[in-house]
Amino acid sequence: MKILFICSQNKWRSLTAERLFDDHPHYEARSAGTEPGARVRVTAGHLGWAEIIFVMERRHADRLREKFASELPGKTVVTLRIPDKYPFGDSTLIALLRDKLATHLPLL
Protein backbone atom coordinates (compact mmCIF):
# COMPACT_ATOMS: atom_id res chain seq x y z
CA MET A 1 0.00 0.00 0.00
CA LYS A 2 1.29 3.46 -0.90
CA ILE A 3 0.98 6.01 1.89
CA LEU A 4 1.74 9.72 1.87
CA PHE A 5 2.44 11.86 4.93
CA ILE A 6 1.89 15.62 4.80
CA CYS A 7 2.93 18.38 7.19
CA SER A 8 4.00 21.99 6.64
CA GLN A 9 7.74 21.86 5.96
CA ASN A 10 8.41 18.13 5.50
CA LYS A 11 11.29 18.34 7.94
CA TRP A 12 10.03 16.88 11.22
CA ARG A 13 6.65 15.16 11.46
CA SER A 14 5.97 13.84 7.96
CA LEU A 15 9.62 12.91 7.41
CA THR A 16 9.68 11.02 10.72
CA ALA A 17 6.50 9.19 9.68
CA GLU A 18 7.99 8.30 6.29
CA ARG A 19 11.12 6.88 7.92
CA LEU A 20 8.99 4.55 10.09
CA PHE A 21 8.22 2.64 6.89
CA ASP A 22 11.73 2.30 5.47
CA ASP A 23 12.04 -1.30 4.26
CA HIS A 24 8.50 -2.18 5.42
CA PRO A 25 7.24 -5.25 3.53
CA HIS A 26 3.62 -4.03 3.19
CA TYR A 27 3.75 -0.24 3.02
CA GLU A 28 5.62 2.17 0.79
CA ALA A 29 5.76 5.67 2.25
CA ARG A 30 6.61 9.13 0.98
CA SER A 31 6.26 12.54 2.57
CA ALA A 32 5.88 16.16 1.54
CA GLY A 33 5.01 19.59 2.88
CA THR A 34 2.34 22.12 2.02
CA GLU A 35 4.42 25.30 2.37
CA PRO A 36 6.66 27.01 -0.23
CA GLY A 37 9.85 26.38 1.79
CA ALA A 38 9.15 22.67 2.35
CA ARG A 39 11.99 20.19 1.93
CA VAL A 40 9.77 18.40 -0.62
CA ARG A 41 6.64 20.30 -1.62
CA VAL A 42 3.50 18.26 -2.28
CA THR A 43 2.46 17.93 -5.92
CA ALA A 44 -0.44 16.42 -7.84
CA GLY A 45 1.90 13.53 -8.59
CA HIS A 46 2.28 12.71 -4.91
CA LEU A 47 -1.49 12.63 -4.48
CA GLY A 48 -1.98 10.50 -7.57
CA TRP A 49 0.62 8.01 -6.34
CA ALA A 50 -0.83 7.66 -2.82
CA GLU A 51 -3.53 5.21 -1.85
CA ILE A 52 -4.02 6.88 1.54
CA ILE A 53 -2.93 10.34 2.67
CA PHE A 54 -2.17 11.23 6.27
CA VAL A 55 -2.00 14.90 7.25
CA MET A 56 -0.71 16.09 10.60
CA GLU A 57 -3.22 18.94 11.09
CA ARG A 58 -6.60 19.92 9.69
CA ARG A 59 -5.06 22.94 7.98
CA HIS A 60 -2.94 20.58 5.86
CA ALA A 61 -6.09 18.83 4.61
CA ASP A 62 -7.62 22.25 3.92
CA ARG A 63 -4.57 23.25 1.88
CA LEU A 64 -4.76 20.05 -0.14
CA ARG A 65 -8.46 20.61 -0.87
CA GLU A 66 -7.78 24.22 -1.91
CA LYS A 67 -4.89 23.46 -4.23
CA PHE A 68 -5.62 19.92 -5.43
CA ALA A 69 -9.41 19.60 -5.50
CA SER A 70 -9.42 17.60 -8.73
CA GLU A 71 -6.80 15.10 -7.47
CA LEU A 72 -8.52 14.21 -4.19
CA PRO A 73 -11.83 12.55 -5.17
CA GLY A 74 -11.66 8.88 -4.24
CA LYS A 75 -8.67 9.43 -1.95
CA THR A 76 -8.76 8.79 1.78
CA VAL A 77 -7.35 11.73 3.74
CA VAL A 78 -6.84 11.15 7.47
CA THR A 79 -6.01 13.93 9.91
CA LEU A 80 -3.72 12.66 12.67
CA ARG A 81 -3.94 15.79 14.86
CA ILE A 82 -0.23 15.88 15.72
CA PRO A 83 0.97 19.41 16.57
CA ASP A 84 4.17 20.93 15.24
CA LYS A 85 6.22 20.64 18.42
CA TYR A 86 8.33 17.52 17.91
CA PRO A 87 11.73 17.47 16.20
CA PHE A 88 12.65 14.87 13.59
CA GLY A 89 12.93 11.39 15.07
CA ASP A 90 11.60 12.40 18.50
CA SER A 91 10.61 9.34 20.53
CA THR A 92 7.32 10.91 21.65
CA LEU A 93 6.50 11.74 18.03
CA ILE A 94 7.25 8.17 16.96
CA ALA A 95 5.02 6.78 19.73
CA LEU A 96 2.19 9.16 18.74
CA LEU A 97 2.51 8.20 15.09
CA ARG A 98 2.48 4.47 15.85
CA ASP A 99 -0.56 4.86 18.09
CA LYS A 100 -2.56 6.98 15.64
CA LEU A 101 -1.62 4.95 12.57
CA ALA A 102 -2.38 1.56 14.12
CA THR A 103 -6.12 1.77 13.44
CA HIS A 104 -5.55 2.67 9.77
CA LEU A 105 -2.57 0.47 8.97
CA PRO A 106 -3.08 -2.94 10.58
CA LEU A 107 0.23 -4.32 9.31
CA LEU A 108 2.24 -1.60 11.06
What shape does the CA trace take? globular
**CATH classification, class level:** Alpha Beta
CATH topology: Rossmann fold
Helix-strand pattern, N to C?
EHEHEHEH
Domain Phosphotyrosine protein phosphatase I: 1-104
Organism: Hymenobacter artigasi
Protein name: Phosphotyrosine protein phosphatase I domain-containing protein
InterPro entries: Ptyr_pPase, Ptyr_pPase_sf, UCP029416_PTP
Topology record:
Elements: E1 2-7, H1 13-19, E2 28-33, H2 44-49, E3 52-55, H3 58-67, E4 76-79, H4 91-101
Domain Phosphotyrosine protein phosphatase I: 1-104
InterPro entries: Ptyr_pPase, Ptyr_pPase_sf, UCP029416_PTP
Protein name: Phosphotyrosine protein phosphatase I domain-containing protein
Descriptive report:
- It comes from Hymenobacter artigasi.
- InterPro entries: Ptyr_pPase, Ptyr_pPase_sf, UCP029416_PTP.
- This is Phosphotyrosine protein phosphatase I domain-containing protein.
- Residues 1-104 form the Phosphotyrosine protein phosphatase I domain.
- The protein has 108 residues and is an alpha/beta fold.
- Strand 3 (52-55), helix 3 and strand 4 form a beta-alpha-beta unit.
- The protein has helices spanning 13-19, 44-49, 58-67, 91-101; strands at 2-7, 28-33, 52-55, 76-79.
- 31% of the residues lie in helices and 19% in strands.
- It has one domain (2-101): Rossmann fold (3-Layer(aba) Sandwich), CATH 3.40.50.2300.
- It contains 4 helices and 4 strands.
- The chain starts with a strand and ends in a 7-residue tail after the last helix.
- The chain has a 4-stranded parallel beta sheet.
